[in-house]
Amino acid sequence: MTTNISFAHDSIRTTFVRAEEESQELVTVLQKIVRNAGTLLEVRSCSIALLDATGTTLVTLAALQRHGQKLRRSRFQLNEGVAGWVATHREALVINDVRLDPRFKRLGRTPVGSIVCVPLIDAGTFIGTLTASSNEVNTFTPHKTHMLTVFAEQAVLAITNARHAEYARQQANQLEMLMSLSRGITTRLRADELYRTILSDVRRLVQCDLALLYLHQDGAQDLLPVAELTCPVTASAYEQEMCATAVKIDNLQHERVSLYNTHSIVTWAATHKHPILHGPEFITLEPLASDTTLASSNAELAAPLVSKHILYGVLLLSRATPFSSEELRLVRNLSNMAAAALENVSLFHKVRTDQEQLRAILASSSDGIALLSISGSILEVNPAFGNLFGLTPEQAVGMECMELFECQQEDGHTQCNELCMIHRAVQMEEALPYTEFDLVIQGSPRSLGLSITPVATLTTPLCLIVARDVTAIRDATRMKANFISMITHELRSPLNAISGYLDLALEGVAGELNEQLRDFIRRARSGSENLYALIEDLLLISRADAGQWRLNRELIELQEIVDEAVEEMELTAQDHEITLTIDDVSTIPTLYADPIRLQQVLRNLLSNAIHFTPSGGQVRVTAQVVENHYEGISSEHQQVLLLRVSDTGVGIAPELQQRVFERFFQIANANMGRKGQGLGLAIVKMIIELHGGRVTVESEFGKGSVFTCILPCLLT
Length: 716
What we know:
It is a single chain. By secondary structure, the protein is α+β, with helices and mostly antiparallel strands. Helix content is about 40%, strand content about 25%. It is built from 18 helices and 26 strands. Strand 7 and strand 8 form a beta hairpin. Helix 2 (about 25-40) packs antiparallel against helix 4 (about 140-185), helix 4 (about 140-185) packs parallel to helix 8 (about 325-365) and helix 17 packs antiparallel against helix 18 (about 680-690). The longest helix has about 45 residues, at about 140-185. The protein is rod-shaped, with a radius of gyration of 49 Å. Mean pLDDT is about 80; it is low at about 1-20 and about 280-295.
């Protein structure tokens, strides 16, 4: 018998109600029917029998009785006796003299002379018989038989209505019970309590000898038994109430069930995510394997616990007698609630685990971490954050950002508006720029680095502050900057002297020079200029790191800047057989910029281009004025200057194009013997950004590069 057939068979069985379990309300209706039928036919013997749940036996449920006499519930098979014949043929039967008809079988001592029996049929389905008898022969005329047949049709309506009313009451009671059980299930957040509640509740809904709960973990290939309840159906009501609460979750007698086990209905229910039941006989599980059979001395019901298409476990019930489809429906409804509860428990434990991990990470983090509301008040901090400000976490929580960073003091930090305007980060929906500032904490000067990042939540937006003590790093940076500044200052004096004497020699102060000696001195003079430029670069970076670098803007002509830069690099280009060309830039309007720094930009770009261009290549300088549509350039400037330096060199790989502006970063070039210091392009980026512009690079590996400086320096 396949699983689908078992379901179909159960659905047929639900058409019938177990005769022994008919409600008192229905029995009362049946009693009224037989009284009215007796009155209608003027007889003292009338009874009504209904088909039981098996569909094979008629059971007498109401009859005209002598006062005080107990109803005798007669049972007879189909095609047995008068009622059995009527049930089989589904037509009325009149026997005028029962002595002459073998179909009549005497029941009891009451004398019977004639009998009439009519079928009770509801929408084509036979449900029972209505029988009247008399101790005299030839009592039931065709007219009386017709009246009883019409009366039977009305009786069927009364029986159907009574059964529907009883079914509705049962459904309401079951729904109320399920709602009550669901409240008990869904409020459990501890796994062991939930397991006990599920098995106890299902045992109250459906009588069974064994209830077993299997759990399925994500990614596992088997089902783990986590709880079992053993309670015999034959136990007394008190014993059942006691053992219904004795759920075992330790030392279970059952073992894991593999999802590849084709001999288990638990596996079938889990893999198909569909309930299944079978009786105490061999069945074939065709969906798994056509040659696989199960043998069991008990009937079993397996219901998967599925929520949102995810399998959380399987519920297995077992007992000696078969389960009905009504019981399957109850277990299925409860299993849906249990699956949702298991999902809630899983989510609860996941959230709690995540919270514990997050707290552990925050507690062990060396960086200070704080969570702020949009109003700027501190909601939560880790110990490291409190230590940075000389506070305990409890003292820091509730403080205002302005108070923490001493913004309310007269000498408070100048960037307080940036630091404490948390709503600015929320409105921008992006992190504020990293900021470093100095504070006096408990009498000691401290340098802190601060990052403010908005945090999106379902309710109120928040901000995350990450703070780090950078006092030692800033002190080391300052010491390094001071050292570099000192060294460069010390090198500039002798280098100026060298350059001065070389200039005097070239002017012939020490006598006339032959052509070869003059060429030697010119090359030495060019080398000293390159060395001077390197020292200037180092000095520039040290000043920038120390925050001492400022632009000296003035009105300038771009032609002069380009000519001077090209003149400085022309000899180097000739030495390496590289053609250096300049487009006419005389039409470029007057600029408002720092001429020394702009010349330094061009010199560094030209040096870089020559450095990576092989002999016979070309380096070109161009400039043009275009409309401002560039990201990152203030919209106040309608036009910008594009200053380009292009070459036909080796080019830059795409993954390295943004790294070339990092300090001391150098591209390995096996074909070029000349090496730089990795500072030129970093300084170019610094100078251009100080002018409010930006620098970009376009390059194709093996074909050359184009560096473009976008400058909003046009005089308007």
